[in-house]
Structures are given as structure tokens and as C-alpha cells.
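Input.
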Amino acid sequence: MPGLIARRDPEGHDVTQPPGVPPDDSPPGPHGRPPTFGPGYYGPPQGYYGPPPGYGPPPGYGPPPGYGPPPPYPGGQYPPPYLQYQAPRPGCVPLRPLGLGDILDGAFKVMRRNPRTTLGLSAGVALVQALIGAAGLYLSLRSLGRVDSSSLGFGSTTFTANPTQLISTFLGLLMGAVLTGMLTLVVTQDVLGRRMTIAETWRQVRPRAWALLGLSLTTSILEILGIILCVAPGVWLWGIWTAAVPACMVERLGVRASLGRSKALVDGTFWRVWGIRALGVLITSVVSWLIVLPFLIVGFVSVFDTVDDTGSLVLLSVFFGIGSLVSSTFVAPVRAGIDALLYVDLRMRKEGLDIALQQSVALPAGPVAAD
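Output.
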């Protein structure tokens, strides 16, 4: 071929060498000398490299023999896809921020878990409230001189505007606040699973009795004045002072400090707190009237023909007082429990009280299936 130089390599093969390229006289390697290609060719000839004959792609891999789908879960049900953390619950409520259902349920559970203490304290205060209420009813009926629908306030404000009834209502609020203070200690201890007797409760209340009485007077007077002068201020005060009595008893604060503490806790959640408290009052009021109503019916039937007689008025007042005693005994602990649990919930949400309570009870928390 023109332009190529023919020569023989040391092994005896004819090799063509382009002009100007020095011959490769180096000794061949262990597998022989690689072939030399002409100018302008930058790769091996087509088909030079490839898999050895008789070899194909590797076979695919399948599951090892003997393995199949997992057996069904016992009972035919599989566990939930995920689990969530369950807070410990040593007492009436779980140690985490509380919802509406937790608060209402916990208020009733406190009474069931501590019947002697809650019902005993409530019955003592309810007796005083019933005597005050019965006396107020008797004086109101005596001054009116008759018993009819308007005197009882059904469809009219005559009865509620009576000064005797206003005094009776004020004293009822005052006694209710005092009872809330005593039961707050029972509720807050029950949250930790600790039960208190009446004697233990009184020992802790006695040093705080004057502060509790002063706070109860302050809140009762201002709330009633707010409602009389204008409904909105009374409603607002009733909401922001939800946690005043519990703060006074648990944190041992004075009157002014308790009011400020309650306002600080309620700020930012006013309507939630007010709504839960109002719902609790609505529920307990319905239950209270369902308890009192049979006593009132019996009282009216007993004095129907002798309504103007003094003895009949006394008998009617007695029936009303008995009904009030029974209803207040069972309803007052629930109302106090709602206020106390609202206080606990506010501190859990704003101050992380739930973490401290979980550490204090030292209970292991386990997983629970999510709803």
C-alpha cells in the first residue's frame, strides 16, 4: 500500500507502519503486541471487544423459597398505622392540656372519686345556702301576700327585683365562692391521684379563710354590680376572674394578687374559658332545677287551698329549702370542679404545668392507639 512501510515484527508477523512513525521495537507483553492501526482511526475495529461467546445476561433474582405474606393479625385486625403518646392519668384528668370533654368529665369524676369529702363539704355549705334561700323566699312571699306566677318570677321580674331576693342571691354567690375555694384543694390534689379528707382540707383552708372570704366578697359584689348596672361588665368580670379563687388557694395569694393572676391566665383565651364555664353553669342549672322541681310541686300542692296562711308559706319555704339543699349538695362540687380544672388547664397551656406534674407523679407513659 502506498504511504505505508511494511515490516516484520519480532514474532514474524507483517506489520504496516505509517510513514514518519518510528517502529515499535519494544519487546511484546505477556499476551503479545497489540495491533497497530492506520492514521485517523481512534478506536478498535468493530466487533473487536465483546462478551465471550456463550454468555448471556445474568438471570433475574426472585424471592427466596419459603417466604410468603405475613400471617394475619390475631382477631383479623391489624394494628393502627401509627401510635400517639398518652399522658399519665393518676387522677380525674390526664396530665396534659385539657379539652372541654376532659374538664366536664373530670368535674364529675372528682365527686365520684372523693364522695365523702366533696359531698360532705358541699352539704355543709348547701345547708347554709338552703336556709338563706328558704328565708328569702318566705320573706318575699310574705311581703307580696300571695303566691302566683308573677311572685315567683315566671314571666316577670317582680321576684328577682325584690331586695330580699337580691340579698339571698348575693349570699348564695358568696357561699358558693367559699365552697369553690375549699373544693379547689380537693380537685387539684385529685389531679395527682391524692385524696384528701375533710379534716385535711380544713387544715389547709383555715389559714387562708380570711383571704378567701375577702376574695369571695369582692368578686360577688363587683359581678352583681356589673350585671345590675350593665350586663357586659358583669359578664366580662365573671370571665376574667374564673381562676381567682383557685389561684388564691393553690398559690396562697392575696385578694388583689389573685384577681391579677386570674386575669393574666385568662388573657388570650377569654371566650374559650367563658364558654366552658357558662356551659358548666347551664348544665348544672338544668340538673339543679330538675332536682328542685319535684319539691316545689309537692309544696304547691300541699298549700294550694291555704295559700294565704302563714303556716302554708312556711311549709312551702321548707320544701323549697329541702330541694335546694339536695340540689346544691350534688351540683356545687361539679361547678367548683369546673373552675378548678380550668385553672389547672390554663397553667398547663401557659406555664407547662403538665410537665412538672408528670415528673412529680413519676408514672411511665405508654403508647395508645390514635383515634
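The two ends are 90 Å apart (CA to CA).
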